[in-house]
Every structure is written in structure tokens, then in C-alpha cells.
Amino acid sequence: MNVPLWVWLATVLGILTVIAADLIWASRRPHAVGIREAALWVLVYVGLAGVFFVGLALAAGPGPGGEFVAGYITEYTLSIDNLFVFVLLLSRFAVPPVNQHKVLLIGIAISLVLRAVFIALGTAVVSTFEWVFFGFGALLIYTAVKLALPGDDHESDFHDGRIVRAIRRIVPTSEAYDGSRLLTTVDGRRVFTPMVIVVTAIGAANVIFALDSIPAIFGLTQSGYIIFTANAFALMGLRQLYFLIGGLLDRLRYLNYGLAVILGFIGVKLILEAMEAEGLSDLGPLHLPHIGIAASLAFIAVTLAVTSVASLTHSPRAAESD
């Protein structure tokens, strides 16, 4: 899909406008975000993604529109793992509830910029070397196996505080917060507040998780425009999702298994497409199937539904009520 430069510029400008407006609103009205407010904002961001889907489908056809929906759902789902890290970081640094909205927004904005760089590099590599799909597919299958194994915990990368200690060595910071300010004065010296460490750590966490999610979306579409917009809409809505389901995270006991199934499926799909590109449509007597975007979207949706229902039905809280 060839996207004119003006469409790229208009899209980036629209995304920056939404983020800037959200940041101004969060700065002028610092407050603890409640469940009702979070639910409304989640609906707003999902609605924006829906409007974008309709516009894309009308302008480019149902194919690209379906790729965006599949990519958006995949990125949004895989980003749920980030919420566990958000809980860890915000609690470790005792971020006041009134400042959590701003912290998450800035951290996610940083990660969106870094993801855009990864997407641009990935698109260039994929368009030049089709065999890269074999590597992406193998990476996703490996990640799926790790997720499915007992005891695998994405949060462990942050428990020892290596990222946090590295940031503290580089960035001079105060011991206490100063409202929602990023800079403060201590003994006549201008230093950063712990807020900077939190937003940097959140941005770094999002980039680390992108090492799994970006190869996954390449299994659904090779359009850099669709990959970027799917990531952008998923990340913009992630912050509000944290406030909405933060209390339910401990009940999503089968989430990792659902994500593992999705990653494994997309990994296999990537390898099949790479084999097809190399002219290998048969493996002995076995004809290799072509997995279309409709089948991919249906598989992802069913996996998420089964995982969610199983988690909430068999959660410890549900068991206690029986």
C-alpha cells in the first residue's frame, strides 16, 4: 500500500495533537483517575481507532482495513503485559495517584517515538530481505514457548532494578517528588525528580516489549503505515486501560497462555509466508496452507475470548464465591 507523504504528515500531526491535548489536560487537572473516567476514555480511544479503520477501509479497501484491525487488536493485547510492569514501577516509586496519568502519558509518548524508529528499520529490512520472516517467525515461536513455560515472568527483568540504577547513575535526581514537576531545586542545584526515572523506565519497558509485538504485527501486514498506526492507537489507549483493569490483572491467570498461542500462531504464519515467497508451497505430500487476514483475525479474537472467560471463571476470587 503506497501512502502519500501528506497522509503520513496528517496522521502524525493528528496523533501528536491528541497526545498534546491529553498532556495539557493531565497537567492542568492533576487527579486520580477513577474507573468510570477510565472506561469513558478507553471507549474514546477505541472509537478513534474505529473511525480510523472506517476511513482506511473507504480509502484503501477492506484488505488494509482488516489488516489494521488485526494489527490493532494484536498490539493492544500484547501490550497488556506492559500493565504488570506499570503496576510494579508506579508502586516501587510510590508515584502519587494524581500524577500517575501524566507519568504514563509521557512514558508512552517516548516509547511511541522509539517504536516508530524500530518500525521504519523493520519495514526497510523486510522489503529488502524476505528471508527475515524466517527469523521473525522463529523469534515469535521462541517467545511463545517462554511465555507458556511455568515460572516465566516478564516483570523479572525489572525486579533487580538494573534499568533504574543505570538511569540514576546518569541522571541526577532528588529523593522526593515536587508535585508533578520533572525538575526541582535541591540545595540551590537544579535536579530531576523521580518522575523522570519513572517515565524513562516506562518508555524503556514499552520498547523491550516491542521486540515481541512488532515482529508479530509484521506477520499480519507489511505496510509500515498500518503497523505504525496500529501501534499508535494501541499505545494511546493503553494508559486508560491501566486505570480500568489494573485491579483485574491478578485475575488474568491464563493471559500468558493466550498470548503464547497468539505469538506461536503468528510465528508459524510468518514462516509459512516466507516459504511461500521462496516458492515452497508443498512440504512433501503436505500442501502448506495460506492463512489470510480474516482467518488470523478470527483466531486472535477466539483465543482472547477463551483466555478471558477462562481466567475470570477460574480466578481465585471466582472460586471463593462458589
The neighbouring-strand order within the major sheet is 1-2
Mean pLDDT: 78
Radius of gyration: 21 Å
Number of domains: 1
**H/E element sequence:** HHHHHHHHEEHHHEEHH
**Class by SSE composition:** mainly alpha
Which stretches are poorly predicted, pLDDT < 50 over at least 5 residues?
Answer: 152-160
Helix content: over 70%
Gross geometry: globular
Tally the beta strands: 4
Major β-sheet profile:
2 strands, antiparallel
Number of distinct helices: 13
End-to-end gap: 53 Å
Strand content: under 5%
List keywords for this structure.
two-stranded antiparallel ribbon; mainly alpha; two-stranded antiparallel sheet; 322 residues
